[in-house]
Amino acid sequence: MDKRNNLPIFLLLAVFIIATCGLIYELVAGALASYLLGDSVKQFSFIIGTYLFSMGVGSFLAKYITKNLFDRFIDIELLIGLIGGCSSVILFLLFQQVEHFQFVLYFFVFLTGCLCGMEIPLLMNILKDRVQFRDLVSNVFAFDYIGALIASVLFPIVLIPKLGVMGTSLFFGIINILVGVFLAFYLAKRLKNPTWIKVKSVSCLGLLAVVFVFSDDLLKYSESQLYGNNIIYKHSTTYQRIVLTESKGEYQLFLNNNLQFNTKDEYRYHEVLVHPAMSMAKQISNVLVLGGGDGLAVREILKYPGVQKVTLVDLDEGMTKLFQTNELLVRHNRGALNDPRVDIINQDAFIWAKSAISKYDVMIIDFPDPSNYSLGKLFTNSFYQTLMPLMTEQTMVSVQTTSPYFAPKSYWCIHETITSVFPNTVAYHTYVPSFGEWGFCLFSADMTQHFKRPIRRVGQLRFYNYKFEELTDFPLDMRAADVQINRLDNQILVRYFDEEWSKI
Length: 504
Prior knowledge:
- The chain is built from 16 helices and eleven strands.
- The chain has helices spanning 3-37, 40-61, 69-94, 101-127, 133-186, 194-213, 215-227, 266-280, 296-301, 317-325, 327-332, 349-355, 373-376, 381-387, 408-419, 492-501; strands spanning 230-236, 241-247, 250-255, 258-262, 286-291, 309-313, 342-345, 360-366, 391-400, 425-432, 436-444.
- Strands 7-6-5-8-9-11-10 form a seven-stranded mixed beta sheet, with helices on both faces. The protein has a four-stranded antiparallel beta sheet with strand order 1-2-3-4.
- α3 (69-94) packs parallel to α7.
C-alpha cells in the first residue's frame, strides 16, 4: 500500500470521525447541563456559544504549532478523547461537591472546543503540500459537516436512549483515541518520537476503556450522591432521564433531576388536581388527561363509576411504558394505565390538540413545570385556545400551575393567561409536604359555573374533603401583581420561572 497516496484519505476520514466526536461532546455537555441545571434552551444556547467561541480560540492558537505536526495532531486527538470522554464522568461526580459547578462545566466545554478548533487548521497545514488548495478546503469542510450531521441525528435517537449521557461521551472518547492509536502506528516513520506516541496512545485507550467498563458503577455512585437515596430504577429516554429512588419504604420519581412525586404524599397533589373538576363537572363519561404519564391522575379519575373513557396524551412512551409494566409502580397507580377504558397516545400535546376532534367532559392538565421553552409553550394562551374546539360549554378543566409561594409571578402569570382565553376561572392551592404550597387553576367555558357545589362524590379519598372554597384563599405572600400573559412569541413565563426558582 502506498502510504503517500493514502495519507490524505486517512486524514480526511479522521476529520469525519473527529467532527462526529466533537459535536457529540458538545451535545453531551448541553444534555448534562439541562439535566442538572434545568432550562434546556438556555443551557444549550450557552454551551453552543461557548463551544464555537473556544473553537475559534483553538483555530487561532493552531498557527503557533509549526514543528512535528504529526506528533502534535495525534497528541491533540488523545487529549480530546480523554477530556471529552471523561467530561461527563467528572461533571457528574463534581455536581454535588463544588460550589461553582457552572464554571467547571464551561471550563470543560471551552477546553474541548479549543482542542477541536486546533484540528482542522493543523490538518490543513499537514495536507497543504499534498492536496490542491481548492480540493483541500472543500474536502476538509465537507467531511467535517457530514460528521456533525450524523452526530446530531444519532445523539437523540440512538445514543442517549441506549448509552446514556456518560456512556455516550466515553464511547466517543474511545473512538477519538482509536484515531490517535491508528495514526500513531500508521505514521510511525513520520513521527519525531514514535515510541513515546505509541505508548501514550495505547495507555490513553486502556485508561478510557477501563472507565467505560466501570461507567455504570460510576454513574450509580454519582447519582446516589445526587439523589441521596437508594436508586432502584434509572433509564434515559429520548426526552428525559428517569430515576426512581426509595427511602424508608417510600418512592420518589425524578425527571431530569426534578422531583415529580413522592409516594408518601402524592395523593394530596393528585386528589386536589382531579377531584374538584370531576366532582363539579356536569358530565364525566369522556375524560382527557394531558401529561400525567405516571397514571396517578388517571387512578383518581377511574374512581368515578360514570367514567367510560380516558384519553391520556403524554409525550414520552418510555414514561408510560414504565408505569404500565413496573410491578411496584403499577401497584401504586392501581393499574390505571392498563385499564381497558384508558387510551394512551404518545405525542406532543401541543401538536395533538391541533388535530384532535373529540370533545371531552373533563380535562386534567398535568404538565411538568415550565422550566424551559418546550414546556412553556404548553402554558401559553395559544395552547389554551387550541383546547376550545375540544370542549363543550360544560367542560371542566383543571391545570397544575406551579407553586404560588415559591414562584408567585409564575403562578399568577399562568392564571392570567388562562383567564385571557377563559374568563370563568378560579385559582386554588394546597400544601404538599414534598413540594410545599402548590397551585392549580380550574376553569370552564360555562359562565354560569361557580365552582362550589359538587355534583358527585366518591369514597377512597385520603385528603380532599370536597370543600373546594377552603382552597381558594390566598394570603398576601402568595400573590403577585402586574404579570404579563404568557404568549407563544414571548414565553415570559419561562423567564419568571427561572428567576424565581433559581433563588430557592
